[in-house]
Amino acid sequence: MAKIEGSCLCGQVQYASMAEPLVVALCNCTHCQKQSGGAFSVNVGIPKGSLKFETGQTQVFADRGSSGQAVYRHFCPNCGSPIFSDVVSRPGLIWLKAGTLKDTSWVKPTMSLWCESAQSWVHQPDIQQFRQGPASV
Ligand SMILES: [Zn+2]
Ligand SMILES: [Zn+2]
């Protein structure tokens, strides 16, 4: 059974990947706050190309990361749920939004990015912390 399976809020977009997740990172950047409507995003890095859509298709917002390169933010065109980001400055990976996973029991972030723009009430977990990137996700 695929570890990585999920959908958007309305269920129109359903995806799966047979790959093992490579990294789980929190991102406190202002763009992730805007896009998620929350304090940070939870991103699961998986090999680009391993993600298959079972139903539906995402729409893309071409954002720009701090590197100046594009961050393609894919979302459900019907309900607006963010599904994944494709960060051009970090090739080979895409970043799934962990809140869209069917099973989140295995999700354990190991790094927190963009802590300098974290909301003041957020207590960072005891994991590697970066004031800024490696790259905006
Ligand atoms: Zn949807
Ligand atoms: Zn971010």
UniProtKB/TrEMBL annotation:
Pfam families: GFA (PF04828)
InterPro entries: CENP-V/GFA, Mss4-like_sf
Single GO MF descriptor: metal ion binding
Source organism phylogeny: Bacteria, Pseudomonadati, Pseudomonadota, Betaproteobacteria, Burkholderiales
SUPFAM superfamilies linked: Mss4-like (SSF51316)
Protein's name in the database: Glutathione-dependent formaldehyde-activating GFA
Keyword annotations of the record: Lyase, Metal-binding, Zinc
Domain CENP-V/GFA: 4-107
DNA damage found in the keyword field: no
Domain of life: Bacteria
Homology family: Belongs to the Gfa family.
Signal peptide (residue range): none
Gene3D superfamilies assigned to the protein according to its UniProt record, in alphabetical order: glutathione-dependent formaldehyde- activating enzyme (gfa)
PROSITE patterns named in the record: CENP_V_GFA (PS51891)
